[in-house]
Write a structure and sequence with these properties.
This protein is an all-alpha fold. The protein is built from twelve helices and no strands. It has two domains: 44 residues, Homeodomain-like (Arc Repressor Mutant, subunit A); 153 residues.
């Protein structure tokens, strides 16, 4: 890995673990195995480093938003979308959590965050519609947008909600299960079982990758 890429990756991990405001440039350089001067050679300011991380985050979001429901496998494609969303929120959780420590969002986030939110809701709605089309979800079409919005809110803020409760262990699993309760009673039993099984795998995979 190139030095610049190593700095970005190490910084993301440290910011997630300790908090953006708590990580000093000296501790960051030490974690990267480089001199502090070398760190500033690649990034003139800490905010420049934040921007580089945000650019990677933006790419992850844009890639996730391209995932469309597969009519031949609506449950599988829905669960793959859930995994991508939760990995994204887990891998870059400090960007939203620590905003009070760095102020306004940097460019890649500030200019896109509203669009990302709407398109995430659109994407979740499309996946839920595919479940309806497959006869797996009994839900009125005129109420589908509200379901997508509420699901987005639960998943978007679930990780920090459980962290604030002092219950960060299994936060991905708990957030996804909480979102599922919104419509679980209107799902085909086989679909419920498949989604619950997928959620357990998602939680395990995200924790292993952390």
């Amino acid at each position: 890995m190139k030095t610049r890429d190593r700095i970005i990756e190490t910084s993301r991990l440290l910011f997630n673990e300790a908090g953006y405001g708590a990580v000093t440039t000296a501790s960051l350089a030490e974690a990267c195995g480089i001199a502090e001067g070398n760190l500033w050679y690649h990034f003139k300011t800490k905010r420049d480093l934040l921007t580089a991380i945000a650019e990677e985050f933006a790419l992850r979001i844009e890639t996730r938003l391209t995932q469309r429901p597969d009519p031949a496998d609506p449950i599988g494609s829905y669960c793959r979308m859930l995994e991508a969303l939760m990995r994204e929120l887990r891998d870059y959780r400090f960007l939203y959590r620590d905003q009070p420590h760095y102020g306004e969002h940097v460019g890649p986030i500030a200019t896109n965050v509203a669009r990302w939110l709407v398109e995430t809701e659109d994407n979740i709605e499309a996946h839920l519609a595919a479940l309806i089309d497959a006869g797996l979800l009994d839900w009125k079409r005129d109420r589908l947008r509200s379901l997508a919005v509420n699901s987005t809110i639960i998943m978007r803020y679930g990780l920090e909600h459980h962290a604030e409760l002092g219950q960060p262990q299994g936060a991905v699993r708990k957030s996804l299960l909480q979102a599922l309760t919104l419509f679980e009673d209107r799902l085909n039993l086989e679909a419920v079982r498949a989604i619950r099984t997928a959620i357990e795998r998602i939680d395990e995979k995200v924790r292993e990758a952390a």
